[in-house]
Amino acid sequence: MLARDIVARAARAYRDEVAYVDGDRRLTWGELHRRSDRLAAGLQSLGIGKGDAVALLAHDRLELVEHWWACVKIGALRVGVNYRYATREIAHIVRDADAKALVVDAALRDLVASEVGAFEAEGRMLVGLGEGHGLAHDYEELLTRGETPELPPLAGDDPIAISYTSGTTGLPKGAIFTQRGLRDAIAWLNVNVGLRHEDVWVNGLPCAGAAMVFTAANAVNGMTCVMPDRGFRPDRFLELVAEHRVTSTILVPTMMTAVLEQLDRGDYDTSSLRLICYGSMPASPTLIRAAKERFGCEVQQWYSATELTAAPVVILRDAAHRHAIASEPELLTSCGRATAAIDLEIRTAEGEPVPTGEVGEVWVRGDVVFGGYLNRPEETAEVLAGEWLRPGDLGRMDERGHLYLVDRKKFMIISGGYNVFPVVVENVLAEHAAVREVAAVGAPHPRWGEAVVAVVSLQHGASATPAELIAFCEGKVGKWEVPKHVEIVDELPKGATAKIQKHEIRGWFRDDPSRLPWASGA
């Protein structure tokens, strides 16, 4: 069975039921199947075949889902392009994937206006979506060229999509999803998370990247997915929850923080929510407790990665949250236990198992593991060891199988010979009543090699001094873990998926040492 078989069966089983909501527009399962068939036939009329990349630059809208399934059906490679990227990054993605066609939302045409001529000269076909796009081909016209596409034979290892990361270093890199990986990712997501046909689901993460899997997973159970209305905004998210009686959602912690703040500003009905999932970056216990108390519904923490086809493979379930809040607060710093989708081990860099409770590298094995990075064999070799994925996370596992991430390997701080895991420092600072968001990084230090530096934003209306925040950490972490400097900013930098960009923060202090008090002699 392939992913294209799943959506065809969903169309038969739930033909007249609503699959997607986008503002005032609705798309039933039957309509989704028909329109994606027609788009697939239209793409084939342009010469698009199995293995050809078809990129899409668009807001999260109904056509984004049609494009996804059209590509899946004919074995073309779906390439999502995040509209939050700069023109330089967009052009890189199009060329790196060697996209044979690019679908452009008319509202976003200015992002590629300077590249249109070059794209066409390179033989790339440009398809406009919406009124006034002025491009050579029109999306809706393509849907008139045929009713049914020719379905080529596909195998489990065949690539199905190229998902570009948010680019923590340099230009975005493309992760190759496979037919087998996508099929298993959407199936395991539903099974392990407990999503059901009656749910109304909102994916708060942008669909250009790996999070598209969260929006396509409803093909397994036929539930309704509400599109976030041209991007995530906390006020609009809460309006959608009330308007559509949303029951379940996935947010990153920065989004959850913004939603909790928005609840303090207005009166919103969130009584329909039964499940809030969060993940993609560490969430402080303070934030988790606040969300659990404020929403009064089930919560789940997910551990996943683009390289795992976005499948949540480790989950801290609601019962564990309740137990942690009642009697074992440290459990809130865990991301849960491995699901049946994968094998999970903690090993040394050389692949040797480490004893229970000791820190090592996270190794994962399962059919959801991706097929490597496009055009980057050396980076692929760094993360794939046979059937095993090394996603670059450092963690430990307790005797009950709970995984505790201590941070990304590349962000570990070595201060005076001691290993410092930033998440430990961040969790302590997050307990301070004035702290809204925090990131800890290593900065060059003449004596210690690296020193712990924290960058924080404060709660609206709150005040705190750097000295006060440093003193707050004393006695709660080791002396070598106490920040040597705290910088207070209005907002922490975030990437296209709303994750805090630690690499950018680290660059502040490495590129401009004068920001550090010891560099200036203070």
Structure explained in plain terms:
With 522 residues, this protein is an alpha/beta fold. The chain has three domains: 165 residues, Rossmann fold, CATH 3.40.50.12780; 208 residues, ANL, N-terminal domain (Rossmann fold), CATH 3.40.50; 105 residues, 2-Layer Sandwich (GMP Synthetase, Chain A, domain 3). It contains 17 helices and 27 strands. The strands form four sheets. The protein has a 15-stranded mixed beta sheet that branches. A seven-stranded mixed beta sheet has the order 7-6-5-3-4-8-9, with helices on both faces. Strand 13, helix 12 and strand 14 form a beta-alpha-beta unit. Helix 1 crosses helix 2, helix 10 crosses helix 11 and helix 11 packs across helix 12. It is globular. The N and C termini lie far apart (65 Å). The model has no long low-confidence stretch (mean pLDDT 92).
